[in-house]
Amino acid sequence: MKHVVIIGGGFGGLYCARALADAPVRVTLLDRRNHHLFQPLLYQVATAALNPADIAQPIRAIVRKQPNIEVLLAEAKSIDAAGRRVLLDDGNALDFDYLVVATGATHSYFGHDEWEAMAPGLKTVEDAIEIRKRILSAFEEAESARDAKVQREWLTFVVVGGGPTGVELAGAISEVAFHALTRDFRRIDPRQARVLLLEGTPHLLGAYPDVLQQKARKQLGQLGVQVHTEARVTGIDDSGVTVHFKSGEERITARTVLWAAGVAASPLARSLGVPLDRAGRVLVTPTLNAPGFEHVFVIGDLAAVKQENGQLVPGVAPAAMQEGRYAAQAIVDLVHEKPIFAHPFSYLDKGSLATIGRKKAVADLPGHVRLSGLIAWLAWLFIHIFFLIGFRNRILVIIEWAWQYLSFKRGSRLITGPPVAHAEAHTEVGIPPARAEQTSTISRPN
Amino acid sequence: MKHVVIIGGGFGGLYCARALADAPVRVTLLDRRNHHLFQPLLYQVATAALNPADIAQPIRAIVRKQPNIEVLLAEAKSIDAAGRRVLLDDGNALDFDYLVVATGATHSYFGHDEWEAMAPGLKTVEDAIEIRKRILSAFEEAESARDAKVQREWLTFVVVGGGPTGVELAGAISEVAFHALTRDFRRIDPRQARVLLLEGTPHLLGAYPDVLQQKARKQLGQLGVQVHTEARVTGIDDSGVTVHFKSGEERITARTVLWAAGVAASPLARSLGVPLDRAGRVLVTPTLNAPGFEHVFVIGDLAAVKQENGQLVPGVAPAAMQEGRYAAQAIVDLVHEKPIFAHPFSYLDKGSLATIGRKKAVADLPGHVRLSGLIAWLAWLFIHIFFLIGFRNRILVIIEWAWQYLSFKRGSRLITGPPVAHAEAHTEVGIPPARAEQTSTISRPN
Fold this sequence. Notes:
Two copies of one chain form a homodimer.
Chain A: E1 2-7, H1 11-19, E2 25-31, E3 35-37, H2 42-46, H3 52-55, E4 56-58, H4 59-62, E5 69-73, E6 76-80, E7 85-88, E8 93-95, E9 98-101, E10 105-107, H5 125-144, H6 148-154, E11 156-160, H7 164-180, E12 194-198, H8 210-222, E13 225-228, E14 232-237, E15 240-245, E16 248-253, E17 256-259, E18 263-265, E19 282-283, E20 289-290, E21 293-298, E22 303-304, H9 317-335, E23 352-357, E24 360-365, E25 369-372, H10 374-387, H11 391-407, H12 433-438
Parallel strand pairs in A: 1-2, 1-9, 2-5, 9-21, 11-12, 11-17, 12-13, 19-22
Antiparallel strand pairs in A: 3-4, 6-7, 7-8, 10-18, 14-15, 15-16, 20-21, 23-24, 24-25
Helix pairs in contact in A: 1-9, 5-6
């Protein structure tokens, strides 16, 4: 029986594996983590609304009823496409007849990898727990700070990047500050928090039509988020960010900076030895093959897939799912020695949704249907619950959301892991003027 | 207004703080973690049954409606009892009029601190996540191991210590292996797992009557746990444990060893400069005072409290709660300049419960009522749900338990954090005889 190796248990890899359930092949699904992650809700873990286990399921449990699938917890180090072999981090190798590469993307700091420690991004469960810890600890530090200026720094949150993740994060942090924590502290009022969303281009949610971009900006404003477009971050350090505005460079002091600005394809793509685009994605053929290798498919965020209109298929979950199913069908065709070139992959755009906060969202649906506010939010709610894998998760997420909706509280407000360094929180009163100036918080005309 | 400082937000400290809600005092509740932990259910997080957030609540959220309580996230470094001052890790100090010390206990390795890395104990949320990771990773390693012997080593789990925590852990690991994972793997059958429970004394659950000890042992046997009493661990390393049986010393090879054998009082007690017992607990007066300091109370697992019958009050949650409430009342008396010596603390024993697994538990209730099996398990279930702090947690825990009960699945099977070292999992086939002998798994007459 032919052996199909799938690298990556995200939306692309998992949907491909499931589509091969009844195919006459043996499948090995490889991932370096034991769980499939429902990434669209990851920001809710980062903002203490959901538990990690609500949005993550063991891959083994998802495919347990498919006897032809074997799950392997390991990391692929490189691919020998011509030799039909994947090299693993433990020194072992996996031979394949067909390969599906679906390792997705990771953060990109545009050449400033040193920013990562100060401004974590949001891709994994660990990232989400780290960000949750930083957000909650910031309020704790503010409460125990003796100096009003230090307090203000801890109550300033900067989100870099105005795409869907940045918008969701900024909106959710605002809700935490303005609703969930209001009565928890004695010395600070969490409602004094400032949440800034910085976007380098002139547009929030660049992929959405203009009218929805405006709506999103307005809804963020209602939540108390200060949105700055054409604000390019040029420096990040322990005490804040340096931002290049049209009006010149300015300094924003903040103790919590989160990165939602750029992604780059997983480095595994390089070992294929085929042309990549600037973001490191594989420029696949119309049948999603790595050029020159009919038996190697690249799908999801790792693939740059050109549509008929010349644009790239967006890096969203539904696209990865469709590509996964397509690759599965193509492999079945190849096994049966049918040509696959007759029907190239075609992306069916079912629309885009981005949520901003309680009863606030935007939806760009086919046929120029554009929704915002409550109705878009309800659509977002139902679609995300519907696609959550696992019956149990769905029920738990509904309960968590209902609880939050009714109580305005967030249920998962745990700070875990080693405590944050206290060192900087205790700057004594009386800072020399030079430093005070350097760290003054931003105030500029809108 | 008099200032009461409470160190520790566990059962003792928290119940003391709540009992001071209407008292004419100002309270500062200090903890190095932001959450109160419902420790009796911690082993359920360690065995993937519950989420951390199900059994942990932010301390701030619990006391938010009590305006006279301020919560401080910080660690107490030392206590100047005479000078009425607590020194914090950040260099600040807290002055108090009355102090309640409730920092509990931590693991004790009986002088073998080097065992901690190999055999983690279970006291914090982080411990539980680490243990969960080790248990789940062990099955993954077994699945990818090429050598049958290495596979067997990964499928051997040793729990050291036959008190309630050890019994609960061993029972739960057995249930994970024999029920939750049965269909998830292709190369191994998780039911081949061996779970060993080692207890140094002749008795499991030493604090329980003989008849219940026997019942517990029988129920553990039904779950597949191999119980060894009079089995004293004399060595722990990467590949297993060395055990001193009555019949001599033997070696048990196992990749997962968990520690539930000993606790020692928090080291903060030492700075009080008062007599401690062998486990480091403060030998408090009948009014729970640190001897010589009428304004300093020591409660919970940190206190050695002698009962009228000469025995110590057990280190269980209900005792800590009662002591917390007593200390609060004593402080109110002192504020009103009433003598507190008229009514010393007296522990009301409401009975003990230990759970073993699905429909398996033992209960030792007042009036020589001794239950085991289903009825004890139901009592355990209801009492634990009843005392879980927070309405939301109760509902979620009920749902998680109902789901598990009906499906035999465990919902929170996440491996998070950096991956475990693979190095040892890939020992090639063909181990030299000397080593093979050294690592042979135990086989001894019962």
